[in-house]
Amino acid sequence: MPHPNDPKLRSFIDVDATSDFPIQNLPYGVFSSKDGLAPRVGVAIGNYVLDLWELEQDSRLDVGALGVFAGPTLNAFMALGPKVWSQTRARISELLRHDNPELRDNSELRSRALVPMANVKLYLPIAVAGYTDFYSSREHATNVGVMFRGKDNALQPNWLHMPIGYNGRASTVVVSGTKVRRPRGQLKPPTAEVPSFGACKRLDFELEMGFVVGQPSKMGEMLTESQAEEMIFGFVILNDWSARDIQQWEYVPLGPFQGKAFGTSISPWIVTREALEPFRVHGPAQDPAPLPYLKQAQANNYDLQLDVGLRTPAMNEAMRISRTNFKYMYWSSVQQLVHHASSGCAMNVGDVLGSGTISGPDKDARGSLLEISWNGTEPIELPGGAKRTFLEDGDSLVMRGWCQGDGYRVGFGEVEGTILPAE
Ligand code: CA
User: Fold this and answer.
1) Cis ω for the linkage preceding 7 (within 30 of 0)
2) How high is the mean pLDDT in each 10-residue block of the chain (423 residues)?
3) What is the pLDDT at residue 370?
4) Do 283 and 179 sit in the same domain of this protein?
5) How many domains does the chain have?
6) Does residue 340 have an active-site annotation?
7) 89 CA → ligand 1 middle, Å
8) Is residue 89 located within the same domain as residue 177?
9) 17 found inside a domain
């Protein structure tokens, strides 16, 4: 049987070369059809969602535990482990192949199991156990450091020795399309004598990738590079909404808190680690060499293109304001997970770990408005003459990501969010 990543595979379902969801991808999500079915697990293929619960009931798919696809999250499936993830993906690929009549010629099953994408509602695909956010782009950390501390102190002394992170809030991780309310908090502009409480005035996004932990680790145990890799189920695009004014006043001495706690948006389809395998690349050289527990033998970065669009209520379509690539990250996802568990911190099925804002070496590859507008001093000009330094009410932010194969792409769809006025 050909490997599910084989570039030559094709499905009996027509998939455009620019679609995010060819047979080489097969990302998992949770959906309901608009005719009232309860949310269940599906896989995206072209312009369709393949209903895995229907396939399981029809005895076409067997993961050794009945009902894991009937629920509103992927956690039960993820808990079955990497062997089952891989076998299941191979079986779904087989069922969708152009030369397999099993599903192709069974019109009754097809009508039950293939739902047009236009007719579905997508949900947060996992029960988020914990959310941790890192700060692993050297370009982003340097840009922010230069703005706040000057060129000579841009990187903190610890930055090149470990992936810096903080524990965020799982309770406000939401799926693409969820509107995000402008937060309120303590503000103290440099000119003010005392702080006040009010609506955030410097609302920002952060372009990140998130990965989903699909296997637990025990409290007290460290992870090796390969153990950590095996625990990663897949990836999503992540927007770590950020209130810069709240953040700036609160972050010393314990780091981000309310400035980051009000919302984090993720794309609805989880692209499996296995589907990204053909796009592995080495990250930037790490100098100084990481301590032994953080050393990596493999290429753990991915050549994954990302772009960000901004649409104001006056615009018909989004204007691209950034284009960058996940491959620029200094610390890899595997290193982040190894470091997270290194103190003995237990990891859980359903943990989401954010990469940190992904900025690239060029000016048009900056992953936040803080950097794009250089702390508000260089506004971006939009069609029609409007300007932006930070987000205004009604603005929508759209992020897209994909790996380009030869004649196909393994994509993530999009993560979109629109800003509602403060309460
Ligand atoms: Ca972040």
Assistant:
1) no
2) 96 97 98 88 98 96 94 98 98 98 98 96 98 98 93 94 98 98 96 97 98 98 98 99 97 96 98 98 98 98 98 96 98 98 98 98 97 97 95 98 97 98 96
3) 98
4) yes
5) 2
6) no
7) 31
8) no
9) no
Q: How far is the CA of 261 from the centre of ligand 1 (A)?
A: 11
Instruction: Specify whether 198 is located in the same domain as 265.
Output: yes
Please tell me the distance between residue 340's alpha carbon and the centre of ligand 1 in angstroms.
Answer: 16
**Within-domain flag for 372:** yes
Catalytic residue among 140, 161, 282, 340: 140
The enclosing domain of 34 has a CATH number of 2.30.30.230
**By residue range, what is the domain housing residue 71?**
28-123
Distance 48 CA to ligand 1 centre (A): 32
Answer yes or no: do 322 and 395 share one domain: yes
Nearest Cα neighbor of 1 from 102, 99, 106 is 99
DSSP letter for each residue of 344-397? S----TT-EEE------SSGGG--BHHHHTTTTTSPEE-TTS-EESS--TT-EE
Residues 151 and 168 in one domain: yes
Residues near ligand 1 ion, CB 5 Å cutoff: 133, 206, 240
170 lies in the same domain as 86: no
Backbone angles phi, psi at 404, to 5 degrees: -90, 115
Distance 95 CA to ligand 1 centre (A): 39
In three-state secondary structure terms, 83 is helix
- Token pair for residue 372? 């794009």
Establish if 9 belongs to a structural domain.
Answer: no
pLDDT of the residue at 195: 98
